[in-house]
Design a protein that fits this description.
The protein is α/β, with parallel strands linked by helices. It has helices at 15-20, 36-51, 67-72, 99-111; strands at residues 8-10, 26-31, 57-62, 80-85, 88-94. The longest helix has 16 residues, at 36-51.
């Protein structure tokens, strides 16, 4: 699997504890060694993990060696990015993207929607 500095790898065995029970929102990259867009996304994820430390946890999971979690969330394309908050997936994105775009897409998760009221 592509090792990314500052981004931990999770597996089928520890996914629930590391992601679903985390105190912070967690951005999970579903990745594979054979995936060129995943390699392009690696420095973006490293930068986001460093910049948003304390507000967002960033991890990656290898789809080839972790079929249970990959199947549980219906991941078919790499890279797939899923944000988990409070044990639930709250956002999903497919494909590599520049850091600015990724941070914009994560803004509501990291900072919360401005002026929003949760009426659930």
């Amino acid at each position: 699997m592509i090792g990314i500095e500052g981004v931990d790898a999770v597996t089928d065995a520890d996914f629930d504890g590391e992601v679903l029970k985390a105190g912070l929102p967690v951005l999970v990259e579903f990745t594979a060694d054979w995936c060129p867009p995943c390699r392009r996304l690696a420095p973006v994820l490293a930068a986001v993990a460093e910049e948003e430390a304390g507000r967002l946890k960033v991890v990656q999971i290898d789809v080839d060696t972790n079929p249970e979690i990959t199947g549980r969330y219906g991941v078919l394309a790499m890279p797939t990015l899923i944000v988990f908050q409070g044990g639930e997936p709250v956002k999903s994105m497919v494909g590599a993207r520049p850091k600015r775009k990724l941070l914009r897409e994560l803004e509501d998760v990291i900072r919360g929607p401005a002026g929003s009221v949760d009426v659930r």
